[in-house]
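Researcher: Structure for this, please.
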Amino acid sequence: MPKPFSASAIFNPIFPKSITLFLSLTPKSFLGFLPFLSLMALREVLRQQLSELISSMEQEGFVDFHFNIAHTVKKVDGPLAFIELVTTFRSDSQSTLRTLTQALDQPIINFNEMEQHCLKIKGSTSCLGIYRMALASGDLRQAICNSSKEECFLALNRMKHEFLILQEKFDLICQLERRIYSAEPGEV
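Model: Predicted structure, token format:
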């Protein structure tokens, strides 16, 4: 009869809850769990990368604590809910930025209409904790209140710049979220 593994042979601090499950496994039966352990390790590494990416975005001032709150929506609405939220935000923001750009290209600028679009994007960035873009939209609103085409142009370009930087970071977040989801038990 094969001997079970000892606790020291299989202890891994990343998986403390999993240890007791494997204490009674024989060497032969343990090999059947290696793919499962690999998935557990992969998920943990991906979650750590995601956490570090979001932390770096906070440290750089791109997002604030509201972003972490929005990120937890996946715990309630499903593992892909945050990806859907980000995708909707990106689509709506692109459309609003395009509309604001077109409004500035008009010979006579409708500042009231621009303000409505600006408030829409400011609201969504504030709710999602997209801090630097929310600040830029605040600057745009001030420029709109001043009825200054030049200030609006500068503020809108800043918003576009912040949005482009966010696009890259959102791509990474969504890629990590999808990889974590694909490594979930029952999803592979």
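Researcher: Any notable elements?
Model: The CA atoms of residues 30 and 62 lie 45 Å apart. The chain has one domain: 44-183.
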